[in-house]
């Protein structure tokens, strides 16, 4: 099974997926919408081909998504794992890969969807937040939940220490869920 990871930033989840020695699929492409993202160095280190695009150079979302779909099909990709991809998936990509796009989000959805979920949870003062892996649909972080794991917020947590613990859970959970779906 050939899969693509989509990422816009640091790529710690991409790295965690790549480091999983028994991953049940081949990560054959990294798609990135930020030419300066450090995930690109990680892809190079792992020898994963990249498709990097600048959305500003396209007239619309459907224009760049058509190009993305073309690249995915060219590489025979059948699954997409979003890992810090900071764009809303539009109908062009969604229709081409229906039920084959999943995402990892750093909260217990439906709580704290959208950007800065960790900061939102921290500011709200909840005692438990967590991590969700879910299917992508046309909404923002609204798709069917596949797996969730709670993370306790400690009274002496800073946003930074909370983020570290959440990311540790992400790095463990995402490859496990991926392997389960590949069966
Ligand atoms: C992760 O916290 C993920 O849940 C969210 O974006 C972050 C990406 O981090 N969607 P990284 O680029 O994988 O380090």
From TrEMBL:
SUPFAM superfamilies cross-referenced by the UniProt entry: Formyltransferase
Enzyme nomenclature, EC number: 2.1.2.2
Annotated site (Raises pKa of active site His): 141
Pfam families the UniProt entry points to: Formyl_trans_N (PF00551)
Pathway where this protein functions: Purine metabolism; IMP biosynthesis via de novo pathway; N(2)-formyl-N(1)-(5-phospho-D-ribosyl)glycinamide from N(1)-(5-phospho-D-ribosyl)glycinamide (10-formyl THF route): step 1/1
Catalytic activity of the protein: N(1)-(5-phospho-beta-D-ribosyl)glycinamide + (6R)-10-formyltetrahydrofolate = N(2)-formyl-N(1)-(5-phospho-beta-D-ribosyl)glycinamide + (6S)-5,6,7,8-tetrahydrofolate + H(+)
Positions that bind (6R)-10-formyltetrahydrofolate: 61, 86-89, 103
Residues bound to N(1)-(5-phospho-beta-D-ribosyl)glycinamide: 11-13
Record-annotated active site: 105
Top-rank taxon: Bacteria
Residue stretches making up the Formyl transferase N-terminal domain: 2-178
Protein family per UniProt: Belongs to the GART family.
NCBIfam families the record matches: PurN
Function, as annotated: Catalyzes the transfer of a formyl group from 10-formyltetrahydrofolate to 5-phospho-ribosyl-glycinamide (GAR), producing 5-phospho-ribosyl-N-formylglycinamide (FGAR) and tetrahydrofolate.
Protein name: Phosphoribosylglycinamide formyltransferase
UniProt lineage: Bacteria, Bacillati, Bacillota, Bacilli, Bacillales
């Amino acid at each position: 099974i050939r899969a693509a990871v989509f990422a816009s930033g640091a790529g710690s989840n991409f790295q965690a997926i790549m480091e999983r020695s028994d991953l049940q699929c081949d990560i054959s492409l990294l798609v990135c919408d930020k030419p300066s993202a450090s995930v690109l160095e990680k892809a190079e280190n792992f020898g994963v081909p990249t498709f990097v695009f600048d959305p500003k150079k396209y007239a619309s979302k459907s224009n760049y998504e058509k190009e993305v779909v073309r690249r995915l099909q060219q590489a025979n990709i059948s699954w997409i794992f979003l890992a810090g991809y900071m764009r809303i998936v539009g109908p062009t990509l969604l229709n081409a890969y229906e039920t084959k796009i999943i995402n990892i989000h750093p909260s217990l959805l439906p709580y704290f969807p959208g950007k800065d979920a960790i900061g939102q949870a921290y500011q709200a003062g909840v005692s438990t937040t967590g991590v969700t892996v879910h299917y992508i649909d046309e909404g923002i972080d609204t798709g069917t939940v596949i797996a969730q794991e709670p993370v306790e917020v400690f009274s002496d947590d800073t946003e930074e220490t909370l983020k570290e613990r959440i990311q540790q859970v992400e790095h463990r959970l995402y490859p496990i869920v991926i392997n389960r779906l590949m069966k």
